[in-house]
Write a structure and sequence with these properties.
Chain A: Keywords: CBS domain. The complex is a heterodimer. Chain A has six helices and eight strands. By secondary structure, chain A is an alpha+beta fold. The chains are: A alpha+beta, B alpha/beta. At the A-B interface, strand 5 of A face loops of B.
Chain lengths: ~220, ~400
């Protein structure tokens, strides 16, 4: 999946000469936390986040009313040399950038111009879409040995029951090194006959587990 | 044993909508959805002496026009064709039929229209003030979508019935679904409708079909705040289930102020149910209708329609659970102690499992649940999240 499929294309941005007051109002009105700063050519030259603004403003507990601060240009508080992404970047790669660089948003730049923005919330939503149920379905979890062709063996059982698979996630088994966990979302309400067949084929079906339980 | 108390008066309190033609909704001999549970329930009520011939009314068959209140014309056409042998499994699949869950069977349109008609019959009796309450236990097919069958359900009788009551009687309807699966079909039908409130209590969709029914699903647009979801954890037991059910039901009904309550009474939250992982006993099936009955009188002048739903242990669970709806509805004392011996003798011969000989379950049905306290605590948090909006609007 590439960034242009998930990025927000309506981007709220300001210019370096705009004031802190402008930024405060825009963040509040649009309920956002990040503002790319662009020059008159539409190039990204900085970023102002909610935290930059909080740092700039006096504590709300102080009784000082220094209105001047609100009229300072954003230029004075923005972060320069920011990390940006491209519409053709892979979502998996930018997720890693978010994690490693500990950032909260990534302005997306193409042909020198700001064309979109991705935030941590967008990545979370993407995760929800990957792992959640957007069509009526049941989830089956299977522990399988980490060997070539195992997914084929498992999906043969689904094929036999003519059940459509909505999503498959594969992740490492935390307990056993040479095993993987398959988490498969299938479009079926009664998975019992499939589970029975999976067990007959020797697969370790973790869930649904029958009364006996292992939470 | 409680005796039927209806013949002293001409005006009845309740009707039981049923006829053998509801048994035509049948996928195959091995399919878990098996309407033999209706036969077993009616027979149990008969043996108990709790169901009189004149309590029973014939379900009518729903007209196409009525079914179209909840479904697309194209879909109804497909179902008709499928039931008349004019459709392959492959052609049916985009419409959710011809699958392992919802196979094609002869006359599936007619059988499904009888189920819908039964629920409409029940609605007419109640909304025309002929009776206070009515049950159509053949109904409750809550997974049916506008243009697609899902999870054993073809036409969604509750969706059609609610639309019908809105149109014909201008009613404000509260739908509460205690099936162990999320009542998705009904929820999505009224997701943006502020005049229909849906409540579903179900095992969390993390693993279980249909996967939806998160507490954050609250309705959309004008209907925001009229969908309630209470996804409870696998291994939830009676006490926590009933606490969630009664608290949510009472607060929501007081907030929404419906004209009529429609309850969906799937009986698959029981420990014995093969498709789900909740650990409830017959105790919840005694309490669910009791509280519905009480609230219907408190808020809706008694107007209460009960439909069936899931329930896949058709021998040990469903007949007892559904009999308790009828005894509650007719103000008969909830039966206790042993089941009628004649019933046990007759059906034990056919049942693949040993029948439970008493109305309530034995105490040692299962071993203690190790993380009971945490499960109860988590369910309670879900309850608070689900009710957050109406609680904060009151304070």
């Amino acid at each position: 999946m590439i960034v242009e499929e998930i990025m927000n294309t309506t981007v709220f941005s300001l210019q370096p000469s705009d004031t802190i007051k402008d930024a405060v109002q825009l963040l509040k009105k649009e309920r956002i936390r990040h503002l790319p700063i662009t020059n008159s050519a539409g190039e990204v030259i900085g970023l102002v986040t909610e935290r930059d603004i909080k740092n700039a403003l006096p504590s709300s507990l102080l009784k000082i009313h220094d209105e001047d601060i609100f009229y300072q240009p954003l230029e004075n508080i923005m972060t320069k040399n920011i990390i940006v992404g491209h519409p053709l970047d892979f979502v998996e790669e930018i997720a890693l950038i978010f994690y490693e660089q500990r950032i909260g948003c990534l302005p997306i730049v193409s042909a020198g111009k700001l064309v979109g923005i991705v935030t941590g919330t967008d990545l979370l939503y993407n995760y929800i879409e990957l792992t959640g149920a957007n069509k009526p379905s049941s989830l089956i979890e299977i522990r399988v040995p980490d060997v070539v062709g195992i997914l084929f063996e498992v999906t043969k059982v689904f094929h036999k029951h003519r059940v459509s698979v909505l999503s498959v996630l594969v992740y490492p088994d935390k307990e056993l090194d040479n095993m993987k966990i398959l988490s498969i979302r299938v479009k079926i309400m009664n998975p019992l006959s499939i589970i029975e067949d999976l067990r007959k084929e020797g697969f370790d079906v973790l869930w649904p587990n029958m009364p006996g339980m292992n939470l | 044993m409680a005796k039927y108390a209806g013949h002293e008066s001409l005006t009845k309190n309740a009707v039981f909508v049923y006829s053998d033609n509801q048994l035509g909704y049948k996928f195959s001999d091995t399919h878990p959805f098996n309407q033999k549970r209706l036969t077993l329930t009616v027979d149990l009520l008969n043996e108990l002496g709790a169901l009189n011939k004149d309590d029973i009314v014939e379900p009518r068959i729903a007209t196409d026009e009525e079914i179209l209140l909840g479904h697309d014309a194209k879909y109804v056409d497909i179902i008709k064709k499928a039931g008349h042998g004019e459709l392959s499994n492959e052609q049916g699949e985009p419409y959710g039929i011809g699958t392992e869950d919802t196979p094609i069977f002869p006359f599936m349109h007619e059988a499904s229209a009888h189920i819908v008609g039964g629920t409409l019959t029940a609605c007419d009796y109640v909304m025309q003030d002929k009776v206070k309450h009515a049950a159509n236990l053949g109904g409750g097919l809550h997974h049916g979508f506008k243009g697609r069958a899902s999870g054993f359900c073809i036409y969604n009788d509750s969706t059609v019935a609610i639309k019908y009551m809105q149109q014909k009687y201008n009613a404000r309807v509260l739908y509460i679904d205690t099936d162990a699966h999320h009542g998705d079909g009904v929820q999505w039908s009224f997701y943006d409708d502020p005049n229909v409130c849906t409540i579903s209590i179900h095992e969390t969709g993390r693993y279980l079909f249909p996967g939806t029914g998160n507490v954050t699903e609250r309705g959309t647009g004008e209907g925001h705040g009229t969908s309630f979801n209470l996804p409870i954890d696998a291994f939830t037991e009676d006490e926590s289930f009933l606490d969630i059910y009664e608290t949510a039901f009472r607060e929501i009904v007081a907030h929404f102020k419906p004209d009529v309550i429609l309850t969906q009474n799937g009986a698959d939250a029981h420990y014995f149910d093969p498709l789900t992982h909740l650990y409830c006993s017959m105790k919840i099936y005694k309490e669910i209708p009791r509280i519905a009955h009480e609230l219907a009188h408190e808020f809706c002048d008694g107007r209460w329609i009960a439909v069936g739903g899931g329930g896949y242990d058709i021998w040990r669970v469903v007949p007892r659970a559904w009999s308790l709806i009828w005894t509650e509805m007719t103000d008969q004392k909830a039966p206790d102690g042993p089941l009628p011996a004649t019933w046990l003798e007759k059906w034990q011969l056919e049942s693949p499992v040993t029948l439970i000989p008493t109305w309530m379950d034995p105490n040692n049905m299962y071993n203690d649940v190790p993380r009971k306290a945490e499960i109860t605590e988590k369910n309670y948090q879900i309850l608070e999240k689900a009710l957050y909006m109406i609680r904060s609007s009151q304070s």
